[in-house]
Amino acid sequence: MRDTLDRLRSIIAAFLRERQFPVELYDARDSQSPPQVARFSAVLLAASLHMRRHEKEMQRFIERERGVLSSLPTAFLSLSLSAAGAHDPARASEERLQTLRQLNRCTDELFEKTRWRPDHTEFVAGALMYTRYNPLVRWIMRRIAQKEGASTDTSRDHVFTDWGALDRFAEGFASSLAPELRAAS
After folding, report:
1. Which is it for the CA torsion 50, 54, 55, 56, positive or negative?
2. pLDDT tens by residue, 114-159
3. Which terminus has fewer CB within 10 Å in the chain: N or C?
4. Which helix (H) or strand (E) holds 166?
5. Is 32 in the same domain as 120?
6. Pairing between β-strand 127-128 and β-strand 158-159 as defined by DSSP bridges
7. Could you give the C-alpha distances from 40 to 22, 56, 80, in angstroms and in order?
8. pLDDT tens across 51-75, in order?
């Protein structure tokens, strides 16, 4: 999931830079050089969801920066395999709705714990990176995938991210930002 999260961050950063927004990337796990959030004009956070919980590092980051985040335009991307089920047209609409409700509960739990709520939230489907997992993790992920009706072919990786939907989300977020936030040309 980390590879997909890193790729997602890079793609969104490139997308915003193409539209003349200055962008800086930070990893919430890097406690040695935390960003000076107060100097930003907007913030887009992205976190992985595992076992119905977002990363602890992201929770701590939000709690630490809550005051500043509450004063800026913000967006939150929640990356998970569950999001693939919420967007899968092959699944029954009630099943997709049930998954979406669960994803909303997970983000609401994070927002309640941190007492912060972003302006925009998006659920992004992740990937099964079977070839990069150690044998135990591969076995566990295969069992979860089997239960969820996802691919159990462990000989290759499976990326479920809808990059077009991600572009549309980034476009919507960029459009919501004031034009003066763009870098001087």
Report:
1. negative
2. 999 999 999 999 888 899 999 999 999 999 888 877 889 999 999 8
3. C
4. helix 163-176
5. yes
6. antiparallel
7. 10, 23, 27
8. 889 999 999 999 999 999 999 999 9
